[in-house]
Specification:
heterodimer; A: alpha/beta; FAD/NAD(P)-binding domain; seven-stranded mixed sheet; five-stranded parallel sheet; 13 helices; globular; B: mainly beta; Ubiquitin-like (UB roll); 1 helix; about 10% helix
Amino acid sequence: MPDTVSNVVSNATFDVAVIGAGPAGLAAAARAAESGARVAMVDDNPRPGGQIWRASRTPEPWLRSQVEVFSGARVFAAPEPGVLALERSHSNLELRYRSLILATGARERFLPFPGWTLPNVMGAGGLQALAKSGLPINGKRIVVAGSGPLLLAVAKYLRGHGADVRLIAEQADSSAIFRFGLGLIAKPGKLIQAAQFRAGLLGIRYLTACWPIAARGVERLESVTLQRNGKTWTEPCDYLACGFGLIPNVELPALFGCRMSETGVAVDDYQQTSVAAIYCAGEVTGIGGLDLALVEGEIAGYAAAGKPRDAGKLFAARKSNRQFAGALERAFAPRAELRNLPQDDTFVCRCEDVTYARVRQCSNWREAKLHTRCGMGPCQGRVCGGALEFLLGWKPDSVRPPVLPARVGSLARPG
Amino acid sequence: MPTLRLRVDGLPIDVPAGSMVSAAVAIAGASKFRTSVTGQPRAPLCGMGICFECRVTIDGRAHCKSCQIPCEAGMEVETDA
């Protein structure tokens, strides 16, 4: 049945438009609204909260009645300065703004290995998101693998909902994590969180310097083969929850021409990007966790609403959280051996089913796209991009609209 | 907890209100959400609208990302479209 899609041009101009309703976006919208700005918040999920606060009541302290929330809406283009083109399920919208805050967050880094395309091999955050969305996991045997503190949070959540978490396989060495642990002593709040985590994880094997090398099964996952200290063994399981840390969602800032840094989008003290009146906050500027995302969001919100003095009062808090982020990145950096995970016949691009052998014959992203269609499918390189950056050192190509697949009708502007 | 009923590949499924379509497909027992261009079974990877592996047909509308769409009573969901 053909859809009726209406194209709507919003008459209102917002002082501040916030893209992303995770912690950074919510904090930004709240502070901007409190400062007297007319604020719109846009998010592609059905409800505000982002991934970390998915299906929870935690965002409520940050939700302000003055903020106009556009949920289930995707930004797919910026047709002219000060205008965003949004696609919703049955309508399109053009939204006008004076300042823009991009709080697009992060996604998991996936690394290809044999069998990673089997049903029930998911991201670590991916499986948690699905469980929060109603997937029953009670009694399911789950291996949690990859890297970073997210694995612990996910394992704790899954176990708390009745799953049989067989083990956590962390690719980093115990020495690196130990050094990171020592760094926590300077942050009492983080230490308390760590202790609470340990209590929830009691009895789950936590193996460092361990990673999955293959997932096996016919129609769906049946077991995962793991490697540690040169030994391999196979764990039968129903789900593999596997993610190798987080990478920032920089596609939208790139579309606006924002300059990048080593860690994400480059910003100044006020979270402003290289483009005037466009701010970035949270994981998109570099992976740093919840506390950093909130304080960056607050700073961006004040600054975008014309309250730089209020923003400046938060610089010290941001600095200490950034130090924590740096320690985190060093401790959980992916080890070089993980570059050997994909075999010749392993698909790297899951949208177009392009093997590692074919991609590796190319010398850069552009060539791979033209010759193999790698990165040309619906996800537009969001999954294989993070993998190939690690495997082959390829930096992402330029971003062109539409930044995500959009309906043909959405691309034709009214009038 | 209130539940609602929808159909996945013709099979009636009851899910808690607030569940996403992806959960309903999994509850229905389907491990395959879609078939890849070389014929492989695929199912959700990222759970958050990035990977497009969770695509299904909802009420005749193809390529819907089931991880981001809440279940509604009476929905007709088809996998492997």
